[in-house]
Amino acid sequence: MAVKMNLVDATTTQRLLSWLVDMVPVLILSVIFLPMISAKMLQALTVPEVMGDIMGIYATYALLALAYTVFVWWWEATAGKTLGNLVLGVRTTNLEGGAPGWGKTIGRRLLIAVAGIIPLAGSILMVISNQFDSNGKKQGWHDKAAGTLVLDIKAGRDPLSTGGKQGPESFAPQPAGEQDSAVANVRQPAAEQAPAVTNVPVHKADGPVEQEVAVIDSVPGAVRARQPEPEQQPEAQPAQQPEAQPAQQPEPQPQAELSDQHVSGADADEEEGYTRIRSAAPAGLHLEFDDQKCIELDGTILLGRNPSHGEGDIGVRRVVLDDLERSVSKTHLLVQPGAGCIWVTDRGSANGSSIVDAQGAVRALEPGKPEQALAGQTVYLGDRYFHVEQP
User: Fold this and answer.
1) Each residue of 163-185: b (16+ CB within 10 Å) or e?
2) Where are the alpha helices (DSSP H) in the chain?
3) Which has the least CB within 10 A, 62, 221, 293, 333?
């Protein structure tokens, strides 16, 4: 069952505990090295030669603490994670829901360190300062200065993996075993029914012979013209020849129904008896991507990092998607216009594709199987996505 998941701000308790967990490795190093340094300093009072040992121990302690600090900053800058964030289920992001980057991460961390001028209490006060934010306790003082957010990904959506802050309001991928029961079956696009042709037989009369006429009477939206009735001949005068009666036309034979399914290996366009009518793309249907780019869907397109035509893709327009994370495959998704909808087919991509409706239900696409996406729904391909829009 899909669960509605919005962005949720981390609580004050989560922020404080996360910071304390981040400090545990530094505390462990201090417990190991500071007593050693203290003991050597006492020894140096009587044996000055141990000063070199003191400097070596202190340098080792400082290098290890610095290495851990740089690692934590790098992890938070690139992925929004720290040791404490993982344990408490929170993530640090920029205001757009992406990774905060080096500048914002170093800025917020330095502000916490500077507040430590007041030992321990200053840093704690800075960490829990979101408690004093009048805007729903959303940001601490250091977060406002750096332009960052701290989000609870257990209670809400993780924007770092679901398209940022502007991603869909709901993103709850289902376990594979639940998809069959949770996802409604969507009707496959059936083969378009060809117009039936009724042959009007030839009738011989005393006058000229009428030629056989083929009437197309099943084109969607077309109205069959009514056949004019035979004109009434004036009464014959005694001196004229008897009036010629119009030939009686037999009732037309019942129209044969054409099947939506075709014989395996047969081409519908080559079968005798009808002409296949192709539907036109609905006007105004377009795809709005997560980078604000918009594509008018006036025909079939192929999406990917470097899409290439496969068998049967002659004339299909290729659209290249930028993806630095390489979550989108080279040839990822085929998009075809339909009547008030689109049909999307995953081309065997590595990270898969899915459709998310307005209520947050997710339908994972099976490779090679077309699925219908309606206006207002969102289609994901890897970490990229687009909305189906129709004015």
Assistant:
1) bbbebbebbeebeeeeeeeebee
2) 12-44, 51-79, 83-88, 101-115, 121-127, 141-146, 179-182
3) 221
**How far apart (Å, rounded) are the C-alpha atoms in residues 36 and 30?**
10
Q: Which position has the token pair 């004109």?
A: 231
Nearest to 286 by CA among 297, 301, 271: 297
Count of C-beta atoms within a 10 Å radius of residue 85: 26
Non-local (6+) Cβ contacts of 1 within 8 A are 174, 178, 182
Q: pTM here?
A: 0.45
DSSP conformation class of 271: S
Give the C-alpha separation, 363 to 204, whole Å.
62
Listed residue (269, 344, 348) closest to 300, CA to CA: 344
Tell me the backbone φ, ψ of residue 337, rounded to 5 degrees: -75, 150
Residue type present at position 378: T
Question: Chunked in runs of 10, what are the mean pLDDT values of the chain (391 residues)?
Answer: 64 95 95 90 83 89 95 95 95 92 95 92 94 85 94 89 65 42 40 44 45 45 49 51 50 40 39 42 75 90 92 87 90 91 93 92 92 94 91 70
Residue appearing with tokens 């003991």: 39
Structure tokens at 328: 């989108």
List, in order, residues 6 or more apart from 41 with CB less than 8 Å away.
54
Query: In 3-state terms, what secondary structure has residue 163?
Result: coil
Neighbours of 278 (CB within 10 A): 6
**CA-to-CA distance for 259 and 327, rounded, in angstroms?**
41
What is the Cα–Cα distance from 362 to 265, expressed in whole angstroms?
A: 34
Q: How far apart are CA 107 and CA 312, in angstroms?
A: 54
For residue 98, the 8-state DSSP code is S
**What is the distance between the alpha carbons of residues 68 and 72, in angstroms, rounded to a whole number?**
6
